[in-house]
Structures are given as structure tokens and as C-alpha cells.
Specification:
Layout (H helix, E strand, L loop, with lengths): L15 H25 L3 H5 L1 H12 L6 H35 L7 H16 L2 H12 L3 H25 L3 H9 L4 H32 L10 H10 L3 H29 L1
Helix pairs in contact: 4-5, 4-7, 4-9, 4-10, 4-11, 5-7, 6-7, 7-9, 8-9, 9-11, 10-11
Amino acid sequence: MSSTASVQRRFQRFTPRQRFVRWVVLMLSVAAITVSIRHVEVIPEFLYDAPEQLVDLLNRLWPPDLEYYPIAVHEALLETLHIATLGTVLALFLAVPVGLLAARNVTRSTTLNWLAKLILVSSRSVNSLVWALLFVAVFGPGAMAGTLAIAFRSIGFVGKLFAEAVEETQVGPIEALRATGAPRFSVLVKGYWPQVKPAFWSIALFRWDINVRESAVLGLVGAGGIGVALDASLNLFYWDRVATVLLSIFAVVILAELAVTQIRQRII
């Protein structure tokens, strides 16, 4: 009687090379976390009493001084919304030409593509607070510095997403317009714009929502908005007023989120 040797197969999810790569990534991650913790210099004594400090802070914040709202918070809150709105509108006007230069199917020049991408990267790499510090140094403290900081920070975000939306457009309508001898501007308006319009408005609304949040803290460096009231209350240790400012910011952020959702459902 002949017997066939049965070979037991063992299923392995990853190949030996994949397992080695995963092990190397794991070791590098652990090493990076260890080095980061050592450089941050976490003091265990400060962590032990953190719950007590948190409870003490909450006791100081509650109850909020609601009478402070009409005195200093309301006007600052409206200024914050104006900064976010004007900064977003200015960013849209500046980002669209840069986005068209960055789109390879619109601008065929490699030099212009890289120059536009350099502008977009430079805008995104600088934080809003850093932009605000620069414009406060140039124009002085106030809402103008905050508006320009929001605008220059938003150019990279809007321009990059707009350029990607332009590059994803269908070629058919564009070639049809060019075949009829339509000028370049007509090709942009009649060929590209109808295809990228939903993405453009979605990007604009999303960026405005982000700018409402970012403009709330620009006042900490003198760029206007509700951050000025927050900074004044923090410096004077008026924690009940700090609570009023924080609640106002939270309410505005929630309302902005709801407004953006409703607008997107109606126009997109």
C-alpha cells in the first residue's frame, strides 16, 4: 500500500521581506518616540498633580462672567468673523491665478509650474500666528494684520486643492472648445470652470470654516479679533471672563460648522 506524504502548508500573511520592513519601521518608531520623550523632558512630578490642577482650573472658570460678553466680547467676536471672511475672500482672488499656474494641463511651462508650487508650499509652511507677527510688525496691531495673515496662510491650501481639481477635469470639453477656435479665456470659463465649480465652492467654504477657528487666536499676537479679549483676560487672571470668551468661540465654531453644512447642501 503506497502512501503519499502529505505536505502541510503554512499560511503566512507577510513575506519575510515584508516582516523585516515592518520590524525595522517598528524599531525606528520606538526609537523616535524614546528620543522625543527625552528631549521634551517630561517631569513626572508635574504629571502626578495634573488632575488636581485641572480641577482647580475648572473651578476658577466656573461660573463664567456673562456680563462681560456685551462689554468686550461681542464686538471682538464680530471682528473675528470679519477677519475670517475678508481673509478668505482675498485668499480666493490670490489663490486662483496661482492654482492655474500650478495646474499642468493649463500651464504647460514647467518653470511656471514649479514657481507656483513654490508659492503654495511657502504659504502653507508658515503658520497663521507667524504670518500675523510679520504683518503686525509691518502694519501695526489690528484687524488688517489679522486679515492679511489669514489670506496669506489660505493661499497655499486653496491654491493646491484648486490646482488638483483643475488637473482632474475631463479633456473632452476642453478639446472641443479649442477645436472651434475659442480663445484661452473662453476655454477657462466654459471648459474648466463648470467642471471645477463644485470643488471650488467646497474648498472655499471649508477654508472659511478653518479660518474662523484660526482667526480666534490671532489676537494673542495683536492681530485683532476675539483673541485680544482672551489675552487680556488671561493676563489679568480673570478666569470667569476667560470662560466667557471660550464659550463664545465654541458657539461661533459650532454655528459656522452648521452654516457651512447648510450652504454646501444648497449650492453644491
